[in-house]
Amino acid sequence: MAKLNQKLKLKLKYKDDLFKFILSIFIFGIILIFITVVAIIIYYSYPAVSRFGIAFLWTKEWNPPKEIFGAATFIAGTFMVTIIALIFAIPLSLGIGIFLEEYCPKFLKGFFTIIIEILAGIPSVIFGVWGVLTIVPWLRRDIEPFFEAHFSNIPFLKVTENIGYGILAASIVVAFMVVPIIASITKDALAAVPKITKDGALAMGATRLDVIKDVSLPFSYRGIYGGIILGFGRAVGETIAVVLLIGNQAIIPKSIFGVGYTISAMLANTFTFAVISPIYASSEVALALILLLISLIVNIIGRNVLQKVIGGKLSRTQFGGG
Question: 35 in a domain, yes or no?
Answer without folding.
Answer: no
